[in-house]
């Protein structure tokens, strides 16, 4: 079963199904994961909740990528084919999904676990070099629910706790030293003159960013199409944002935002408590818009 997301990974408001009240807590785990990914809970999607209440424990999402393709969501297992003849679900990389024992919601019942799913980012690399100079314990969820990394398309760009962000930006700038910097454009902290930068099939030719997961061989690679934002004809900004200093900042120290997940295939496999991801589909010379719907009819 599929749903096209025509303009962004935040869901359309037009009516797809009969309106019916369904409690958030009565939803299947994969349905809660879908709402959590969108940063939403019950009351925000009354037209979609009846469908979500009966879905299986598997969700494939291919979020919208700005100026490149619309997004799609599928419920249940594959195969999922992209034109021309690519069965993309077979090439996913998997990492465990983690539930924060403490809710990260602004409004919650005391003792309630988080409805959002986290992944275990153990380090960050840029051009194969480890980002250092911050307390790596910030990458781990502590006993009070602070820390860790989650995915949420409600954030347009990835946000990081200040010390992580500063170390990340310092290394990125060092690795892109040959490109002139320009005055930053809010909300970004570092921007570059892109006049002579050129392009590749995966976006601007900038250092690759790796979110290293449960082992050195398992990482989510972010290419230029997902790491950079073209704010004008000749200004390109690093699409990551400073989220404030821990512990005064929000509970989660890294929130992977919509720009970074756009054009990536994600599988929420709740039966196995794992997340599958593809990295940018542009690397495979395809996009979310190239789903072959006739192959799953």
From TrEMBL:
Keywords from the UniProt entry: Secreted, Signal
Xylanase inhibitor C-terminal domain ranges (all copies): 116-278
GO molecular function: aspartic-type endopeptidase activity
Gene Ontology CC: extracellular region
Source superkingdom: Eukaryota
One record GO biological process: proteolysis
TM ranges: none
Entries under InterPro entries matching the protein: Aspartic_peptidase_A1, Peptidase_aspartic_dom_sf, TAXi_C
Compartments where located: Secreted, Extracellular space
Similarity section: Belongs to the peptidase A1 family.
Protein name from the UniProt record: Xylanase inhibitor C-terminal domain-containing protein
Organism: Rubus argutus (Southern blackberry)
